[in-house]
Write a structure and sequence with these properties.
Strand content: 5-15%
Strand order of the largest sheet: 5-6-7-4-8
CATH topology of the largest domain: Rossmann fold
Number of strands: 8
Order of helices and strands: HHEEHEHHHEHEHHEHEHEHHHHHHHHHH
Distance between the termini: 38 Å
Number of helices: 21
Largest sheet: 5 strands, parallel
Number of domains: 4
Structural class: alpha/beta
Shape: globular
CATH superfamily of the largest domain: P-loop containing nucleotide triphosphate hydrolases
Radius of gyration: 26 Å
Helix content: 40-55%
CATH architecture of the largest domain: 3-Layer(aba) Sandwich
């Protein structure tokens, strides 16, 4: 419990610090560099706090420009934080070096088991080598497969195109470009393509990396006079998977090499897949010829997951936690409230279940609200109780004054109870606060209304339909 409270306190402090930086730096810089920062562990003995970013490029950029400012902000917020360490999120983008020439085989033959200290240590291995090294040795996450990817209206085009890219027959469109905001599943599809392609092409050679890693490896090859080996090795792959292509900025020589690599691989019928958080035409600092190559195949846009897809994702994940019962109202609450991206949605569910299992508590709506405060507050649109009352009154055609009146007629009471229920579901207000907005009613009256509407939704299809319609209006 103490560790959990410490984590919550750190999250609260970070929310305040982040908000202050947003005002100082402006919305654009904050969204691009500060918003992706994730809290790591805090060592009380050394006073060191770890902050993680998703890629080496972003970690270096933030460290160079904002390390002093972040350190000062944390020292003001928490005097026990004496050092701030900025690094790459473990297991994400810290891809190891690409082995060139005979160095790879020589090192593995001299006692290295090929696994390395990070997943993806030996990139671009065929299935024959895979037998002894395991699939993570080519940088693919074993859990990110098509079987674990949940498809809905928001991502069906990208999912179908990805499966076609991994199939035995030659894909109709090449290259494939997956465009999606952070946390919507584009990296999942990249890994899934790699796994499925190996299954249908056992002797295939695959290269998976981030765009920034591609640039780093190319620059290293230039410095070591190994550009010929780099080009030969890169163009020897059957499937090229490049993530976060938006980071291929600057370094005209690296962009030019990627351009020639695309042309060479396409000419030989090889397959290429790129992923980014924006369309090719919106990439900054990228040569026009490269933009043309990236957009010449199929650009598959992955929209933010809608409510139906978020529900399906939660149900799919819950199959992994069969011993833990998660009530339907909690699933619905998470699906409606955590709507920014899928990664946060799954992370919230994992945190809730882990807390319940470790403390022996039952999963409930109250527990979700208590333990997921940081995630919920970041996702909630600021819907007000006044807005809820106005919408409900229009829907049921009752006067706005009835929300605070003492009338007990059913035609008035039921809309009032629905409004109280929606106020609890859609706002962070407490029961007493909600009661005061409804004519100074006691918190027990609000609790009764919330439980009554929850029960009616399970038994009365008309009531459930009314609530769903109101939710759509308020969340749109």
């Amino acid at each position: 419990m103490m560790e959990e409270q410490e984590a919550l306190d750190l999250a609260a402090d970070w929310a305040d610090i982040s908000q202050g930086l947003r005002k100082d730096l402006g919305q654009q810089l904050h969204s691009q560099w500060i918003k992706p920062v994730q809290l790591g562990s805090f060592c009380k003995e050394t006073g060191t706090l770890d902050l993680y970013l998703p890629t080496e490029f972003s970690a270096n950029w933030v460290s160079d420009r904002f390390a002093d400012r972040l350190s000062l902000a944390w020292k003001i917020a928490r005097p026990d934080v004496r050092h701030v360490r900025i690094s790459v999120l473990p297991g994400r983008r810290a891809m190891p070096g690409l082995r060139l020439g005979g160095e790879e085989r020589g090192r593995r033959g001299s006692g290295d088991n090929g696994m390395g200290s990070q997943p993806g240590d030996a990139l671009g291995l065929g299935a024959a080598e895979l037998g002894t090294l395991g699939q993570t040795s080519i940088g693919l996450d074993p859990s990110l497969t098509f079987q674990s990817f949940v498809t809905g209206a928001a991502n069906v085009l990208a999912s179908n195109a990805a499966q076609r890219m991994a199939a035995t027959e030659t894909p109709q469109f090449a290259p494939l470009y997956l465009k999606a905001a952070t946390g919507q599943g584009k990296t999942h599809l990249l890994h899934a393509i790699g796994h499925a392609y190996l299954a249908s092409h056992p002797r295939a050679r695959i290269f998976y990396c981030s765009a920034e890693r591609f640039m780093v490896e190319f620059v290293q090859a230039l410095r070591q006079n190994q550009t010929i080996e780099f080009k030969a090795r890169l163009r020897g792959f059957d499937l090229l998977l490049v993530d976060d292509i938006q980071f291929i900025i600057g370094k005209a020589s690296a962009q030019e090499e990627l351009l020639y690599t695309i042309d060479a691989l396409l000419a030989e019928g090889k397959r290429l897949v790129f992923a980014a958080d924006r369309a090719p035409q919106a990439l900054d600092g990228v040569e026009q010829r490269l933009l043309s190559r990236l957009s010449m195949g199929l650009v598959a846009d992955m929209q933010p997951a809608d409510i139906e897809l978020r529900r399906a994702i939660l149900e799919h994940r819950l199959a992994r936690f069969s011993p833990t019962h998660v009530p339907a109202d909690v699933v619905e609450f998470l699906a409606r409230t955590i709507n920014r991206n899928v990664r946060e949605l799954v992370g919230g569910l994992n945190k809730l279940i882990a807390y319940a299992q470790l403390t022996g508590q039952a999963v409930s709506l109250q527990l979700a609200e208590e333990q997921l405060t940081d995630i919920l507050s970041a996702n909630r649109r600021r819907i007000t109780i006044d807005e809820i009352q106005r919408t409900v009154c229009q829907f049921y055609r009752v006067d706005r004054t009835e929300m605070a009146s003492k009338r007990r007629a059913r035609a008035v009471v039921r809309p009032r109870q629905v409004a109280m229920y929606l106020a609890k579901v859609l706002t962070p207000r407490s029961y007493p606060e909600i009661g005061r907005k409804f004519g100074g009613r006691d918190h027990s009256t609000v609790i009764h209304a919330v439980r009554l509407i929850e029960d009616l939704r399970t038994r009365d299809a008309d009531m459930d339909g009314d609530v769903r319609s109101l939710l759509r209006q308020l969340e749109s």
